[in-house]
Design brief:
Elements (H helix, E strand, L loop, with lengths): L3 H15 L1 E2 L9 H7 L10 E3 L9 H6 L4 E3 L5 H18 L3 E3 L5 H12 L5 E5 L15 H5 L1 E5 L9 H11 L3 E5 L9 H8 L6 E5 L4 H5 L13 E5 L10 E5 L17 H13 L5 H14 L2 H23 L3 E2 L8 E5 H5 L3 H10 L2 E2 L1 E3 L13 E5 L1 H5 L4 H21 L9 H17 L6
Helix pairs in contact: 2-11, 4-11, 5-10, 7-8, 12-16, 14-16, 16-17
Bound molecules: pyridoxal-5'-phosphate.
The site of pyridoxal-5'-phosphate (PLP) has 15 residues, from helix 5.
């Protein structure tokens, strides 16, 4: 008998097929990525790392064929080693890194491993504050890291850019061990050179970028790469714009050596300090089926088509932002330079983000309510919503569809305004159902690549 879990997976397939995904941190993987993830590699334990000893260049056939000694704690690693080496070498190629650790189970694990690699308890980390657009893992008091390290927050200006003056002032005063540039709701391209100049004034300061959101744009060449601007480390998730499996990745510049011996605590040794921090520091056995899927996704991102995809993500986001402004929406930072849009729905239509999120959900449009940098509303009733274009661009949508999307968003905002409260939304279910039908009609014209 078919397990009921599979019925639910089938229902989720239908939800993804018939609706439009506007959550900026979500995407649709390819059939090949999905195949690698659902493979027998999930049966394998491979604590430790493969080695690159004796690899003379980064030629893929050499990497995929050579059987080398490794730093693993279990036998039977012949295939796993070669797959993980492919993932590492492709990641380094994509992001111009000297080293890649492909084992972090998620973006949160990747960040935590970097903090643990470089900091001692009580050390200071300067990062974008959560209300300004930073991520929970950048020092929110509810996290484990915030109990171990001392996080200091910097904010954004009224124009929505990083407040570099505040960042510099706090960096010089506090002498942090890490300056972190990273975010979940920020629409500009950071001035990495300016931050590198600030960090150079502080002894032993690690420059870290958490590019979880924009990694696919960096890989596609439409966004600056922090590793090209003096940053030592870049963390990312692999499942957002990068369009790989759910997981984390740490890229670094420096000297790569055996993870078996603890290296001196220097910035040059950061690749090896990170390897030791991921395993055995903060994780156990790697998920080799996910690492194989990461290798496949990195291979896809190295193809010329991915450059086109990255370009289209940004083009669509800019078009959608312009259309939303024309539809009387107020946008944080007046628009976007990446894939992300933050809409102030309270100022635009006098409604709250949560109610708007729910109404859009009824119509098959998925996004998330999000606090704004200046938000004084309760955390569960923020004034904004956050949306983005990676997933709809993977479906092949373009300018005409962005216009349609903006018109639906306007209609639904007006419904919310008229309803006044969430409890009144059921009265408008007929209108929302009509939009849902139109959404489905459009969605079916642009199939999800893996369904
Ligand atoms: C900037 C940033 N860092 C880290 C993470 C955490 O990633 P994960 O959910 O894979 O732990 C996210 C997730 O949204 C993120 O946006």
């Amino acid at each position: 008998m078919k397990d009921i879990v599979f019925n639910l997976i089938d229902q989720e397939k239908i939800r993804q097929r018939d609706g439009l995904e506007l959550i900026p941190s979500e995407n649709y993987v390819s059939k090949d990525v999905l195949k690698a993830m659902g493979s027998v590699l999930t049966n394998k334990y491979s604590e430790g790392y493969p080695s690159f000893e004796g690899i003379t260049d980064w030629d893929e056939s050499e990497i995929a064929q050579k059987i080398l000694p490794n730093y693993r704690y279990y036998g039977g690693q012949t295939n796993v080693d070669r797959i993980e080496r492919l993932a590492i070498s492709r990641a380094c190629k994509l992001f111009h890194a000297d080293h890649a650790n492909v084992q972090p189970h998620s973006g949160a694990n990747a960040n935590e491993a970097v903090y643990y690699a470089w900091c001692n308890p009580g050390d200071k980390i300067l990062a974008m504050s959560l209300p300004a657009g930073g991520h929970l893992t950048h020092g929110s008091p509810v996290t484990r890291s915030a109990k171990i390290y001392k996080f200091i927050g910097y904010g954004v200006t009224d124009e929505g850019d990083i407040d570099y003056e505040e960042l510099e002032k706090k960096a010089l005063e506090e002498q942090p061990k890490i300056i972190l540039i990273g975010y979940s709701a920020f629409m500009k391209i950071p001035d990495f050179d300016r931050v590198a100049r600030i960090a150079a004034k502080i002894p032993d300061c690690l420059l870290m970028a958490d590019m979880a959101h924009v990694a696919g744009l960096i890989a596609g060449g439409v966004h600056e790469n922090p590793l090209d601007h003096g940053f030592h480390v870049m963390t990312t998730t692999t499942h957002k714009t990068l369009r790989g499996p759910r997981g984390g990745l740490i890229l670094s510049k420096g000297k790569v050596s055996s993870p078996l011996k603890r290296p001196d605590h220097t910035l040059e040794n950061i690749p090896t300090l990170i390897d030791r921090s991921v395993f055995p520091g903060t994780q156990g056995g790697p998920l080799e089926h996910v690492i194989a899927a990461k290798a496949v996704a990195f291979g896809e991102a190295l193809q010329p088509e991915f450059k086109e995809y990255a370009k289209n993500i940004v083009k669509n986001a800019k078009t959608l932002a312009e259309e939303l402004i024309k539809s009387d929406f107020v946008l944080q930072g007046d628009g976007t330079e990446n894939h992300l849009i933050l809409v102030n729905v309270k100022e635009s239509y006098g409604i709250d983000g949560k109610m708007y999120e729910k109404a859009l959900d009824h119509a098959g449009l998925t996004l998330n309510a999000n606090a704004l940098p200046t938000d004084d509303s309760a955390a569960f009733r923020p004034s904004g919503v956050r949306l983005g274009t990676p997933a709809i661009t993977s479906r092949g949508m373009g300018e005409p569809e962005m216009k349609i999307l903006a018109s639906w968003m306007k209609k639904i905002a007006k419904i919310c305004k008229e309803a006044g409260t969430e409890d009144n939304l059921p009265k408008y279910s007929a209108e929302l159902e009509t939009i849902k039908k139109e959404v489905k009609e459009l969605a079916l014209k642009f199939p999800v690549p893996s369904i």
